Amino acid sequence: NAGVTQTPKFQVLKTGQSMTLQCAQDMNHNSMYWYRQDPGMGLRLIYYSASEGTTDKGEVPNGYNVSRLNKREFSLRLESAAPSQTSVYFCASSEGWGNYGYTFGSGTRLTVV
Amino acid sequence: TQLLEQSPQFLSIQEGENLTVYCNSSSVFSSLQWYRQEPGEGPVLLVTVVTGGEVKKLKRLTFQFGDARKDSSLHITAAQPGDTGLYLCAGYAPSGSARQLTFGSGTQLTVLP
Predict the structure, then answer these.
(1) Which of B3, B6, B71, B89 qualifies as a cystine partner to B24, CB 3.0-4.6 A?
(2) What is the C-alpha separation between B45 and B56, in angstroms, rounded?
(3) Phi and psi for A84 in degrees, rounded to 5?
(4) A99 to B31: CB separation less than 8 angstroms, yes or no
(5) DSSP secondary-structure letter at A84?
């Protein structure tokens, strides 16, 4: 039972480089999310996908793009990385809206130098 | 934007002691969730409370949702080193199209043997 799988686990980028963070879930969940976690600031939502084929901005979308490739996969792309994007990124999924709990991946630690 | 404030931010106690962690907001939430996060991992759902005044018990952990559905508490009895981790509360309050969980910044609990 893999749950939510994120790759890579660690990444170092130079300012201006691009990369894509991958996320896949095997629970047949409808909704998927990308969060970033910074010390003292909790989890902040970057983008979410309520269902396959839809994506919406969250609290901190600037500098990021997403693709809901299919029901299982939701990727996050940094087109031109900046030091301010140094963070731990978490992908999560849930059955849908409402009182459903989220299942999180184990995170990607990204450093932009 | 609904804000959730958690207190205390940091808590260090001896094994066997009791503790309470608080999660407060000026907004009403339809449900409150509690997660625990260990180093290098994503948050893991502990419980969801949905009814004002609701109390749920999970072994030595007791969760309460305030009558007005604006606050919640987590009480741990006879804490053990295995309880060490970051405790996050998260509220769900559908607001237009921004239907998502709002996370508090967390309480870092350390239980010393």
Answers:
(1) B71
(2) 14
(3) -65, -10
(4) yes
(5) G
Which candidate from B40, B45, B99 shows the least CB-CB separation from A102? B45
* B53 φ/ψ sector (left φ>0, alpha ψ -120 to 50, else beta): left
Q: Are strands B85-92 and B101-103 parallel, antiparallel or unpaired?
A: antiparallel
Confidence of residue B99 (pLDDT cuts 50, 70, 90): low
DSSP lists the bridge partners of residue B33 as B48, B90
DSSP class of A73: B
CA distance A25 to A27: 6
pLDDT digit string (tens) for A33-58?
Answer: 999 999 877 899 999 998 888 999 99
At B37, list the tokens: 């996060």
Task: Count CB-CB contacts under 10 A for residue B22.
Answer: 15
- Enter the tokens of residue A41: 């600031």
Q: Which residues contact B96 (CB under 8 A, 6 or more apart)?
A: none
Q: Which residues in A lie closer than 8 A to residue B40 (C-beta atoms)?
A: 106-107
pLDDT, tens digit, for every residue of A20-37? 999 999 999 999 999 999
Residue B30: its pLDDT value, please?
A: 87
A57-103 confidence digits (pLDDT tens): 998 999 999 999 899 999 999 999 999 999 999 999 999 877 789 99
